[in-house]
């Protein structure tokens, strides 16, 4: 057969398409979700084409039973999913048994089909907190990963690094204290450091060398803090680290641990929701009554309450974290089933809408493709338009028997959702 010039061009285009498609698919997945709340810890993904509606028989690509419960969220790096679990003691619906039977697990799954790649057991350091309140359990810190290693945190049982095939590389101790609520702040990466909020274990913010696990710096006085630190990019290429503690938001130099600034929150108790930032402004929600939200401009020095605190509000949440996007804040109240949108510059409420049959919101929302995904503890996911006007696009139920405390992960065109029993992949097969 003799090809015309037009035919040669068509064949060439087909060959190029065949070569490029896998690369694009890999690139789409590689964008990934490498830490708690995804890139930068903001809960926002650039992914497009996520499903809006699903159910037990629709848009569930796969469902995998896990070796145990946990409230840590899945992370996605390339074609691998990492998460943590526990078993043997303190499992919801089971007799406690003996604490000596407690086992901690690090799990790796295929992102494409949910099949188990490997599981590694980690020996806990006992005694642990006897059954943390509200069934938070013993695997509540979301891992973080880079191109070389996976880093996991198990509270008083320490921080561990693995290669992507499950070989343990090091283990570091960050304190041995326990708390009735358990421990739940997820580690982040900053340059060559793993940074851990060990407020429960030692009232410290600790930076560890990624390669060795050796302590690089430690900031003390981190009290009543269950949130993960975030990195805040500033003008001129500088970056600060921010974390919320009881009564304050603190700013640090992530490379050295030097304390840079502090801002009073007027929130009088513990801090759970994660911070978010946009254009150098840090947004914080938390507390059960009174002042429950605020904004502070990063980059100051010393006590910046008078100079850099931009606004406070009595509308907030005590568990799930907010999202900031295009000058607006979005969040859900942990108990009332109410979702909010506020103007980021002023804190003024744009809408305050109670969702039907919402129950409790412990998972933090995610935003992708112009849509907000809110997950309640019963596994119902509300999809809203990410705009300063309330618009409910869909309400989806995935399972009636599980408990959903983990926040979703987004990678490619798929949403990964973890219950205390299963990991679900929501998207086309």
Task: Give the arrangement of secondary structure elements.
Blueprint: H1 5-31, E1 44-45, E2 60-65, E3 75-77, E4 80-87, E5 103-110, E6 116-122, E7 144-145, E8 149-153, E9 159-163, E10 168-172, E11 188-190, E12 193-198, H2 199-202, E13 204-209, E14 215-220, E15 230-233, E16 239-245, E17 248-252, E18 259-264, E19 276-278, E20 281-285, E21 293-297, E22 302-303, H3 305-308, E23 309-313, E24 323-325, E25 328-332, E26 338-343, E27 349-354, E28 366-368, E29 371-375, E30 380-385, E31 392-397, E32 409-411, E33 414-418, E34 422-426
Attribute tags:
429 residues, mainly beta, Lipocalin, Thrombin, subunit H, five-stranded mixed β-sheet, globular, disordered N terminus
